[in-house]
Amino acid sequence: MHRNAVILMLCILQSPGLLAQAPIPDWCRALPRPEYKTVERVSISDPWFEVYKPTQGVFAIYEPHQAEETISYLIVGEKRALLFDTGMGISDLKKVIAQLTKLPVVLLNSHTHNDHVGDNWEFSTIYGMDTDFTRQNARGSRLDAQAEITPDQICGVLPKGFDSKAYATRPWKITSYTHNGDRFDLGGRTLEVIATPGHTPDAISLLDRANGLLFTGDTYYPAPIWLFRPETDFDAYAASIRRLAALAPQVKVVMGAHNIPFASPTLLLRLVAAFDAVRAGKVQPSPDSPGKVLYKVDDISFLMRAPAAH
Question: Mind listing the domains of the chain with CATH numbers?
């Protein structure tokens, strides 16, 4: 059991009246994920986050106490660092970043769903994709944020001083636009922007070609991939995952934005095959939450809108 789940259970045992208010969510019972035992952990002062170092110069900043299990990445060069996403905005990511590097930091989002832009407002240099979807999300959102902190979404306790009633994704300012093929020179390390729309219109991946690292955002991660929202485009997603699969021979590690910060590049090929099988009607869905179904092909799964009844 995850250590915060243990703390929560102890609180419940001491205060039986809490039992009806704070049951442990099922997803929380599966934590901690065993894969993290194989990764170097980095000590930080904020218990909301866990920070790991899956490879040299890369910090995976993990939020295991919220159901999204979001992972943001700090990628460090010799002259500056690039922060790929800012997570939920539930605790203070900027303070964590200050403990990991003293270099100047530029921010780039894998896409602009609320669970990846929560602390954008704290940073002064923010690159965004030149899409209406990005500009709309830069205005912030209270509704999406509030949905992330219902009791079934939290594992353990929220940070001390966190104001749940005021919680919202704050607006942020796009300081520059980025486009497919742009390169970010961090000094001794170059990151290439790969447009991978589908999950959202502004979805991107990052390729560190020299080190064989591919950061895929929500185009791939080892959990049910969300493809049910109105902004999702199946044709664009199919093209994007083919683009990533073509890079597989050059990649050593795939780093998605949820759950676990590493996967084998061979999964990129299997991702294409799985999605093609779903679209061809070869995979039977299973019911999930209201209005959604889960398509599962071995260890790859997609959460989609339920087919319309005939």
Answer: 1-31 (no CATH), 36-280 (3.60.15.10)
